[in-house]
Specification:
- 37% of the residues lie in helices and 22% in strands.
- It is of the alpha+beta class.
Length: 123
């Protein structure tokens, strides 16, 4: 029989290994009883330091490419949009949204659009 100490060690080991097991797994919603399926995620090719630098940059300016700002709490994301101001008789952008970032719709390929329509045929 297993002792309480052996069981505690096994539980602690599996709890520590669980985040690593899900680090490269993705979830896709499906229309069945389970509701989702898991799949492998492609590697980003970024180093840990590059990912941390991106996170730090986002924390300094939590604005997405579409102008939504992460405000946290129950609100989560709030669409800010672009702000303009008159400065010295000239209309200029008064926000810190990256105006050169590609829109999400520009990144959608015909193949990914077909996959989306296959997964969600109702709309």
């Amino acid at each position: 029989m297993f002792s309480l100490q052996q069981i505690a060690i096994a539980v602690a080991t599996s709890a520590l290994a669980a985040p690593a097991a899900f680090a490269t797994s993705g979830v896709t919603p499906v229309n069945n009883e389970r509701g989702f399926t898991t799949h492998a995620m492609p590697a980003s090719g970024l180093t840990r330091d590059q990912v941390r630098a991106e996170l730090d940059a986002f924390k300094r300016n939590p604005v997405a490419a579409d102008g939504a700002r992460f405000v946290g709490g129950e609100t989560g994301w709030e669409l800010q949009g672009h702000r303009h101001e008159w400065r010295n008789g000239t209309l200029v952008h008064a926000d810190n949204i990256d105006h050169n970032a590609p829109r999400a719709s520009a990144l959608v390929t015909p193949q990914s659009r077909a996959e989306f329509q296959k997964l969600y045929p109702g709309g």
